[in-house]
Amino acid sequence: MITGFNTDVKFRGLVYHVQTEDKGKVNPLIETLIYKGGEILASRRLPYAELIRDSDTEAVIGRLMEEQHKAMILEVKRGKFAPAEEPPSEDLSLDEIVLAYLVARAARPA
Q1: pTM to 2 decimal places
Q2: Is the pLDDT of residue 56 over 80?
C-alpha cells in the first residue's frame, strides 16, 4: 500500500508543502493538499471507487497519486499560490512543461 507523498517546494523564498495521500478502499479518494506555514492553501480530490473492481488497483492508484502530486507541485512552481504582490513566473524545465500539458489534457472531460 502506498502511504503517500510529501514534498517541500521553494518558490521565491517561500516554502510550500505538498502532501498527497490515499484515503483507502473504505473512502476511495486521493487527496492532495498544499500548505504554507501550516495553512492549507489548496486541495484536490480524486475519487476512484470505480477502480476498486480491477485486479491491479494498487498500481493504478499509485500512478494516479504520483501524477496528481506532480501536477500540484507544478502549480506551486508556476506561482499559483504566490502572494498577490509577487507576479508568478515560469521556472519550469521542458519535462515539467510537458507533464503539465499532459495532466491538463487528461483532466479535460471526454
Answers
A1: 0.72
A2: no
